[in-house]
């Protein structure tokens, strides 16, 4: 199942009733959950975090945007945070086995509907950007609502990707895109002087030579009589929270200021907080498996409704058709991915900048592990479908639909282990490519992970071959599938 986070930002931070109406529109859509609502009166902005499946998430966000368009008037809107629309920005974030390509497709699908149904101009940004300069949200939002309103019709650089060549009179325009997990993180200084916050923000943000993957602005927060450095950490594995905080602290000290408090806006991955805890507590050899809540979750995961390795292997050993070799191959792949993640977790020093490819491999292995676990069940279901189709063909041997159903089931039973093999080979290659930068003391773990991937690929391809024999006997073309099997087969 493909799942995504979506974090639409709305230009309303002072009226809780309006914000609740916007959030309630998403709660009406099955398959979508509202995880969190953050509002800031000074920024005059609300951030609502959702999670759900792709098409349902698009429907939910469109409903939220309909409410926002009807209730927010940008001509009367004034806040510290720059804005271009009543719904200002809508990012889709891939989770689990979902890919950035999937997230881009959702952004495009929503953008087309917003332009057509709400008549709001849409700019695709970040990974969904169709123009290089629009990868940067700040460039898209430049000039804000008023500036875009004046130039959209006359400046070709302002032409939207979807929707009309004029802003909506009260709802403005919107940026819709796809990006990795982002941490919105603010630091309050011990001064009300916004000039200090602006200087600090300039020093720490990437575009002015500061920290990589950090965007920062300085604001005056009137209700607290404090200046704020507002940051977006676009890749917390490259610049973690603690490094951003220390950079702000260091720069603020140059102007006689300190950090009074910091805050997270919206949601944050737990590993980002563990990174900070390990840094400040100097836990250089800390094993995150020792965290109490993780231990409890592991116990919960083995309770009612969740299958343990022990129970799965008992079913595997039984004289029953499923689960079989295909499910076992997928389990081997999941174990290989988990072991690879562990090797890289110990090989990436949270106190130092990580080479960008190592976090990418970690994320790929995390997605692969989740997908392998799904393939375990899918393999059993696909074989059960073959057995059912074979019975139907036996009962009605002359019926064309029986033969067609059997061939469809067999092809499905070949495609599932083929995906397992592809994923195992890809995961093995990714892990092997960074072998030289893993800790030598973890060499045996790395070898075990790659061996598990090899076992997963070999076992899965054996299952594919059996199903190809059935397809070939039925006169079905198998050349392309057979060629892929040979390409994926591990070499001595």
Summary of the model, kept short:
This protein has 492 residues and is an alpha+beta fold. 51% of the residues lie in helices and 15% in strands.
Task: Kindly describe this structure.
The chain is of the alpha+beta class. The protein folds into three domains: 3-178, Formiminotransferase-cyclodeaminase, Chain B, domain 1; 183-280, Alpha-Beta Plaits (2-Layer Sandwich); 321-488, Formiminotetrahydrofolate cyclodeaminase monomer, up-and-down helical bundle (Four Helix Bundle (Hemerythrin (Met), subunit A), Up-down Bundle). The protein contains 15 helices and eleven strands. The strands form two sheets. Strands 1, 2, 3, 4, 5, 6 and 7 form a seven-stranded mixed sheet that branches. Strands 9-10-8-11 form a four-stranded antiparallel sheet. Helix 13 (400-433) packs antiparallel against helix 14 (443-473) and helix 14 (443-473) packs antiparallel against helix 15 (479-488). The longest helix is centred in the last third of the chain and has 39 residues, at 357-395.
Number of helices: 15
Instruction: Report the biggest beta sheet as strand number plus sense, adding barrel if it closes.
Output: 7 strands, mixed
Q: Helicity level, as a percent range? A: 40-55%
Q: What sort of overall outline do the alpha carbons produce when their principal axes are compared?
A: globular
Calculate the mean pLDDT score and round it: 90
Termini separation comes to 35 Å
- Alpha-carbon Rg, integer: 26 Å
User: Would you give the CATH topology of the largest domain?
Assistant: Formiminotransferase-cyclodeaminase, Chain B, domain 1
| CATH domain class name of the largest domain | Alpha Beta
* Overall domain count: 3
Provide the structure class.
Answer: alpha+beta
What is the correct CATH architecture of the largest domain? 2-Layer Sandwich
Extract low-pLDDT stretches.
Answer: none
Total number of beta strands: 11
How much strand content do the residues show? 5-15%
SSE pattern:
EEHEEHEHEHHEEHEEHEHHHHHHHH
- At the fourth CATH level, what is the homologous superfamily of the largest domain? Formiminotransferase, N-terminal subdomain
């Amino acid at each position: 199942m493909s799942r995504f986070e979506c974090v639409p930002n709305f230009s309303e931070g002072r009226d809780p009733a309006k914000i609740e109406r916007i959030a309630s529109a998403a709660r009406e859509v099955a398959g979508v959950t509202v995880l969190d609502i953050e509002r800031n009166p000074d920024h005059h902005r609300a951030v609502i975090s959702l999670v759900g499946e792709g098409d349902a998430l698009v429907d939910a966000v469109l409903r939220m945007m309909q409410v926002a368009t009807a209730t927010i008037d940008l001509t009367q809107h004034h806040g510290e945070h720059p804005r271009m629309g009543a719904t200002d920005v809508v990012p889709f974030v891939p989770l689990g086995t979902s890919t950035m390509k999937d997230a881009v497709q959702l952004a495009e699908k929503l953008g087309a509907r917003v332009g057509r149904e709400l008549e709001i101009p849409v700019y695709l940004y970040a990974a969904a950007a169709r123009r290089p300069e629009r990868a940067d949200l700040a460039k898209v939002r430049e000039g804000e609502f008023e500036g875009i309103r004046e130039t959209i019709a006359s400046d070709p650089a302002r032409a939207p990707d979807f929707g009309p060549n004029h802003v909506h009179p009260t709802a403005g325009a919107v940026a819709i895109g796809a990006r990795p997990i982002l941490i919105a993180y603010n630091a309050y200084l011990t001064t009300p002087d916004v000039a200090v916050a602006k200087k600090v923000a300039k020093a720490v943000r990437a575009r002015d030579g500061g920290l990589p993957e950090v965007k920062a602005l300085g604001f005056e927060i009137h209700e607290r009589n404090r200046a704020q450095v507002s940051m977006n950490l676009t890749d917390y594995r490259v610049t973690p929270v603690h490094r951003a905080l220390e950079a702000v602290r260091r720069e603020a000290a140059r102007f006689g200021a300190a950090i009074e408090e910091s805050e997270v806006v919206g949601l944050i991955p737990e590993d980002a907080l563990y990174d900070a805890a390990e840094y400040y507590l100097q836990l250089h050899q800390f094993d995150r498996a020792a965290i109490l809540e993780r231990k409890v979750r592991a116990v919960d995961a083995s309770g009612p409704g969740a299958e343990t390795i022990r129970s799965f292997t008992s079913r595997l050993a039984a004289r029953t058709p499923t689960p079989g070799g295909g499910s076992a191959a997928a389990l081997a792949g999941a174990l290989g991915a988990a072991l690879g993640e562990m090797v890289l977790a110990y090989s990436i020093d949270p106190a130092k900048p990580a080479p960008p490819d190592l976090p990418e491999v970690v994320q790929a292995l995390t997605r692969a592990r989740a997908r392998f676990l799904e393939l375990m069940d899918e393999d059993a279901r696909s074989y059960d479908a073959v057995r059912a189709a074979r019975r139907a063909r036996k009962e009605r041997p002359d019926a064309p639909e029986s033969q067609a159903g059997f061939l469809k089931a067999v092809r499905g039973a070949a495609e599932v282990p083929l995906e397992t093999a592809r994923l195992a080979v890809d995961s093995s290659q990714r892990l092997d490519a960074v072998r030289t930068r893993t800790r030598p003391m973890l060499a045996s773990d790395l070898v075990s992970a790659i061996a598990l991937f090899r076992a997963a690929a070999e076992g899965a391809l054996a299952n594919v071959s059996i199903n190809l024999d059935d397809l070939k006997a039925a006169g079905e073309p198998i050349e392309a599938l057979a060629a892929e099997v040979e390409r994926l087969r591990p070499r001595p």
